[in-house]
Amino acid sequence: MLEVRPLKGRHELDLFRRFPSSLNAELESDLDTGRRRLDWLWLALDDGEPVARAAWWRRDPGERPAVMDVFDLATPDAGRALLDAALREVVTGAPPPFLRFVPPDWRDHDTTWLDVLREAGATPLVERLRLEWRPGTPIAATGARFREPAGREELVGLMERVVEGSLDVHTKAELTRMSPREQAEAQYEHELDLYDSPREWWRVVVVGGAPAGFVIPARNPYNPIIAYIGVVPEHRGKGLVGELLAEGTRILAGNGVPRIRASTDVTNVPMARAFARAGYVTIEHQVDMVWEQPV
Prior knowledge:
Blueprint: E1 2-6, H1 13-16, H2 27-33, E2 41-46, E3 49-57, E4 67-73, H3 76-90, E5 98-102, H4 112-119, E6 122-133, E7 146-147, H5 152-162, H6 169-174, H7 180-190, E8 203-207, E9 210-219, E10 224-231, H8 240-253, E11 260-265, H9 269-277, E12 281-291
Antiparallel strand pairs: 1-2, 2-3, 3-4, 5-12, 6-11, 6-12, 7-8, 8-9, 9-10
Helix pairs in contact: 3-4, 5-7
């Protein structure tokens, strides 16, 4: 008989980890910091053996689930039963987005998880590259035309401008619901402003005496990252993305980091090429899905 329930305690984490994932190593620290809760880690058990699992994550304690980032199943029926029970208990209203880290050749493997999520009402939004720079990789030289942002207003103003013609799928989706200014304000407040890494790392590139783009090197709870990089429309196609990426990489590498992570949409070919030229390698892909309606 199938048993569907959240974990009863940390002693069941090994049971939860029976399904392989790059996230398994972070579960205990995420519980310690409140980014996960035991009642957001669900299992479907058949005679005590895990046949499906799901989990939700949030950035800070006290928040509702921000994303569902674990869903594995041995059989479609187990996955459906788990989703049906867990979504009712964990989520109020429309479920948060779903994401899954997958190997680059993930379509050659079992994708039953995708079919079950679609049946439940989730829609694929975008596939992204998960990228990594490693120490010892050469960093291109950059000029002296970089400075720190003059303040919040300058950076938000630049963020407002760089979304024009953006190839980023999440950004384009957000712009159907809000203005470029509102999108920039929200991203600054809910992402950039939350990094506790030094603001002195942030850089603006100046061309002809005026700011033409920016890069945000940062550190999230897991890794040093290139959090955001953008060039204003009139300066695109001039190699500034490569210079900004090199500058952000140089700043992080100068702080002795063991790696630098970044991501971009598979369809954002210019950005993907810039990362490749800078020596970033693809370590995984990421599949993002959204629910438009309550389940």
